[in-house]
Automatic annotation (TrEMBL):
Organism: Atrichornis clamosus
Predominant localisation class: membrane
Protein name: LHPL2 protein
Membrane disposition: Multi-pass membrane protein
Transmembrane segments: 12-35, 96-120, 132-154, 183-203
Keyword presence, Metal-binding: no
Name of the encoding gene: Lhfpl2
PANTHER family: LHFPL TETRASPAN SUBFAMILY MEMBER 2 PROTEIN (PTHR12489:SF19), LIPOMA HMGIC FUSION PARTNER-LIKE PROTEIN (PTHR12489)
This protein's UniProt keywords: Fertilization, Membrane, Transmembrane, Transmembrane helix
Length: 228
């Protein structure tokens, strides 16, 4: 018989696991890892309605994508164009970024799998006498290690030609040059920290769902058990 067990700790772990997976996925797909040096303001960038000038535009560069401003001479305006600069894996700008993409993708795949499984832990708490919470916590720890490797290797690719074109000639491995770090990089770091927190917190979720109070309610014949 399936017993639906919902506790404060298990629900918090499930929600946090889903948030972490989505945060890492969004960061990986974003082009806002590096913010390039500011482009000079041209006459096309002047706001004709107010007479003032816009802020200098700063293009962004991701692991495999970029955002830049393109001119439309016919309409005398500029639009921001975002998309992948690499049509395939081999066209990613740096070997270090290729390794980063592999490690991050592996970590994200594990996190998405755990996030999917975590939804069903309300009904199924163990498989083959193994706690799902403990197994998921172990997988989240492994995913965190993959994410760390990817984030360590990423700055080593700042010396590639693509990064230099955005960050200036002084950019090199672990040196930003004229660039600054974008929100996607910080999101990936924050998600990695939360991944390890999830891995540790999975043990608390397992304890909460197998407590004596839960067992007592199961023995009373309750199918839906909600505990704070």
């Amino acid at each position: 018989m399936c017993h639906v067990i919902v506790t404060c700790r298990s629900m918090l772990w499930t929600l946090l696991s889903i948030v972490v997976a989505f945060a890492e996925l969004i960061a990986f797909m974003s082009a806002d890892w590096l913010i390039g040096k500011a482009k000079p303001v041209s006459s096309e960038d002047v706001d004709n309605r107010t007479g003032g000038s816009q802020e200098p535009y700063r293009p962004t560069l991701g692991i495999y994508g970029r955002c830049t401003r393109v001119s439309h001479m016919q309409f005398s305006r500029r639009d921001t164009l975002c998309g992948p600069y690499a049509e395939n894996f081999n066209e990613i700008a740096s070997g270090f970024w290729q390794a980063t993409a592999i490690f991050l993708a592996m970590g994200i795949m594990i996190l998405c799998t755990v996030a999917f499984v975590s939804v069903f832990t309300m009904c199924v708490q163990s498989i083959m006498k193994k706690s799902i919470f403990n197994v998921c916590g172990l997988l989240q720890g492994i995913a965190g290690l993959f994410l760390i490797l990817g984030l360590i290797l990423y700055p080593a690719g700042w010396g590639c030609q693509k990064a230099i074109s955005y960050c200036g000639p002084y950019a090199s491995a672990y040196k930003l040059g004229d660039c600054s770090l974008g929100w996607a990089f910080y999101t990936a770091i924050g998600g990695t920290v939360l991944t390890f927190i999830c891995a540790v917190f999975s043990a608390q979720a397992e304890i909460a769902t197998s407590s004596d109070k839960v067992q007592e309610e199961i023995e009373e014949g309750k199918n839906l058990i909600c505990l704070l």
